[in-house]
Amino acid sequence: MPSQFSTLGFQVTSGEDLAELASSVADRATTIQARDGQYLRWAPPSGEELWLQVKSNGDAMGLNPHFTGKSSVRTAVEARITRETHTPLDGTFLAWANPPEGALTGGDYPFAFDCPDADTFGRLSLPAVVDVQIAAFAQNVTVFQTEALFAASQAAEGMEFEPRSFIPSGLISPEGHPVNPPEPHALFVGGVLEAEERRNTATGVAFWWALVETVGGTFDVVIDPALLTAPPQVGNVLSGWFWLSGRLRSDAGEKPGWFRRVLGR
Predict the structure, then answer these.
(1) 153, β-bridge pairs
(2) Are both 169 and 238 inside the same structural domain?
(3) Total number of domains in the chain
């Protein structure tokens, strides 16, 4: 299975590779101050990004990929999620997609996403309605030339997914049990609005980007070419399982959210 790094054309197979990659971009990165250290953001025009996490004493403590594109999901961010593997500069948000006008909770569906600069939003009061640019890193993916071919595939498998659908698989297990803490994963199907082969500025390795419209908004899908039998094209239907990385564009006010009420937080 492709890694989050190979999805963007980075060739990382070991801890040594990861350390070498971090060192190679650190001098060309922009420094962003946070509460618990610094982020070093390397962001060339081709869209792939690396977020190096640095402690206050200068030691590195993490490295996360992201992709900046054209996506936009109007989101009611409800809660911060902490996982055991998190560093002080990691962060995950629990949210609703496309909340009703004037509401700070509810929407088309709940989901979770990792945020590469989460520590810069420590003072953001939640819940808050924000626009989020979300990169969906394909873990597996299928591209259908037309909606009719997608529908035929669904019928053959005894499935009933619509050509625009979203399942927050990081919140609910296949057995129907809540995932706690929630994970930044989702299954979704959508229509390809734009598609383009990109080349990683650091490595020269190709990867694919597609702007995909589904329920709740548009997502920047990035794909390791090893997953593809044919490249995505405008008008195709794209289906898959994805890791979600999002960056907040704005903020809003405060009101108790459903997730914290459920967990008693």
Answers:
(1) none
(2) yes
(3) 2
Question: In this predicted model, what pLDDT tens digit does every residue of 25-49 receive, in sequence order?
Answer: 899 999 999 999 999 999 999 999 9
Supply the pLDDT for residue 250. Answer: 52
Whether 146 and 95 map to the same domain: the answer is yes
- SS3 category, 24: helix
Classify burial at 201, counting beta carbons within 10 Å of its beta carbon; exposed 0-12, middle 13-18, buried 19 or more.
middle
Buried b / exposed e over 212-251, threshold 16 CB at 10 Å, is bbbbbbbbbbbbbeebeeeebeeebbbbbbbbbbbbbeee
165-192 pLDDT, tens digit per residue, is 999 999 998 888 899 999 999 999 999 9
Q: ∠238-239-241 over CA atoms, to 5°?
A: 130
Q: Provide the pairing of β-strand 206-214 with 185-199.
A: antiparallel
Residue type, 128: A
Is residue 53's pLDDT more than 60? yes
**Domain-ending residue, one of 65, 82, 114:** 65
- Amino acid sitting at position 63: L
pLDDT digits (tens, 9 = 90+) for 119-168: 999 889 999 999 999 999 999 999 999 999 999 999 999 988 999 999 99
In terms of Cα–Cα distance, which of 36, 97, 27 is closest to 62? 36
Rounded to the nearest 5 degrees, what angle is found at the Cα of 135, between the Cα atoms of 131 and 139?
A: 145
Amino acid at residue number 55: K
CA distance 71 to 94: 18
Count Cα atoms within 13 angstroms, Cβ side, for 193: 14
What's the pTM?
Answer: 0.92
Parent domain of 145: 66-265
**In angstroms, rounded to a whole number, what is the distance separating the alpha carbons of residues 63 and 23?**
11
